[in-house]
Amino acid sequence: MRKWFIVALPLFLWAQFNLRAQDQVGCTQLLVDAREAYDAGMVELVPELLLSCLESGLSGELKQEAYKLVITSYLFDYLPDEADLLMQSFLAENPHYQTRPGDAAEFVLLLEAHQKQAAEKAAALAAEAERERLLAKQEEAAREEAEKNQNRNNRQSKPAASRTRVRTKAPRLGVLLGASASSGLILEPFSLGDPMNDGGAYKLAPGLQLGVKADFPLSPALELGLSLLFNRVNLNYSAAPFTNTSYAYHECQNRLQLPVSLAVYLNPMGRTRAYFRFGFATDYMLSASAFGTRTQTGASDVELDKASISDSRAKLNLSGLGGFGLNIPMKKGFFFVEASYTYGLLTVNDPDMRYANQDILWLLYHVDSDYKLGQVNLQFGMTWNLK
Asked: Which residue, 84, 119, 154, sits at the end of a domain?
């Protein structure tokens, strides 16, 4: 029987290794052949028979038996490295395997060595994780204690620290950008028709502001402010001086404005400081222009191209201003945002030049009313300490 087995086994192996795939039945037969080869002492043949079946073709108890046969064969064939590697795969698939009475002593010794090594590694990882947890807990406790001490120190020295941080005594220079909404405040209406019944009225129109500003602290709660602005003012006016006749009039003014004001801080020692601002603004008119459209029932619209009206506008104006703002400290200065309102104290138009522009008068049917200027402003920008 043994002689037949020795002759037939190589031929059988040749046929098996030329199969492109092995199913469960084929690997089961190979396991039977591997047992016979192992029992016959031909341990070098066992891995050749079963390694491919360990990848696919066997499962459950049969696969465990195949693992044990190959590992034991490696040990008997003095191939400890191969046995170690395969034992790692075996334990990866069977992490809770318990030895059985039929297991070879060599397999049991190697299994216990690997299990002991794995347990020591797991214990070392657990100990390291515990050390890291304790260290993190200690660091967190130290950080919390440091924060408590810092907060305690801040509360004890808050006034002095706040004065140092915001530097309320340092003069500052900065830039600003703003948006505005302007409207004419009519003092006495004029019209080619009935000024009391032509519906003439100004509507808010958007404008633009940009410029520079300087702040000079007088005390922690009081500050003098100077600005130099380019103020682009737009005005929209509409009226219906005659029956079935109306017009829309748009005026553009370019002004150079010099506001002088006092800021009164509500929380002088705070980090973000709120304030009210009161003062005056002097305006110098650089230029003024106007255009518009007249609409008449049953006739085509009449367009008035942009025309200069600088001669009919007062060069100088004076306005009162009031507003509210916030100063937010930066490293070397402040970011600020401020809402304000300016109310013109003088008449914008020149009454003596009311009928001077014939195109505006007879093409558009517009006559200047006596009016002052009201303007809502929203400004923001940055200032930097000068020393």
From this structure: 119
